[in-house]
Amino acid sequence: MHTSSLMNAHQRGLRDRSGGLTLIELLVALGMVALLTALAWRGLDGLLQARVVLNEHQQQMSAISAGVDRWRADLHALEVVQSTGCVEWDGKTLRLTRRAEGGGVVGVVWHWQEGQWQRWQSSPVSDPPALRALWGQLRRWPVVGVGPERLAFESEPATPVRSVSLGYYRFNTWTNPQSSVGVTSADNPCGVPDAIRLTLDLPGPAWQGPVSIHWLRPGVALGGV
Question: Mind spelling out the 3-state secondary structure of the chain?
Fold first, then answer.
């Protein structure tokens, strides 16, 4: 009799368990689901953050590459205007005159301010009065404000930098552009240095710290620059 009762109770227990999960089993399952969800979310969040960082790196490197290519192209196209200077650096602003792609001459300003290294370019000019006035406009550019001359310069996307410095290679050594004296000649009437070194202190994230870019004057062969 006792044995029969135990067997009946055991069979009822089996039927009860076959009907669904117990409360403890349900809680364990829910905990595992929550844990897996948290792990999956952390993994997805990590992928999203990595993608953001990668995009920032790509954007910075693209801006740096485009800026460097533009800067070199400006120097390669230097043009002397009315026997005036064709390239000048005052510590924050690089002014130059260059040949325009469609003809004529344009004034170009590279200016560093508040962590931005940015380029401005004037409209092409070719008639003598405008050419004579061009270099004067370049020199007055930082203090023109919002007048007509200031608005005549079109800006381009800026490159974030912490600082900018330039060096001129003259007399077989690197010198300060603001203190060195240029050497003029028939093939170099405005005293363009043999080489120019542009140093940008980049804030990251793709590249952090100083990076130097060199430009050599066409037709000049230098060693150890």
Answer: CHHHHHHHHHHHHHHHHHCCCCHHHHHHHHHHHHHHHHHHHHHHHHHHHHHHHHHHHHHHHHHHHHHHHHHHHHHHCECCCCCCCCEEECCCEEEEEEECCCCCEEEEEEEEECCEEEEEECCCECCHHHHHHHHHHHHHHHHCCCCHHHHCCEECCCEECCEEEEEEEECCEEECCCCCCCCCECCECCCCCCEEEEEEEEECCCCEEEEEEEEECCCCCCCCC
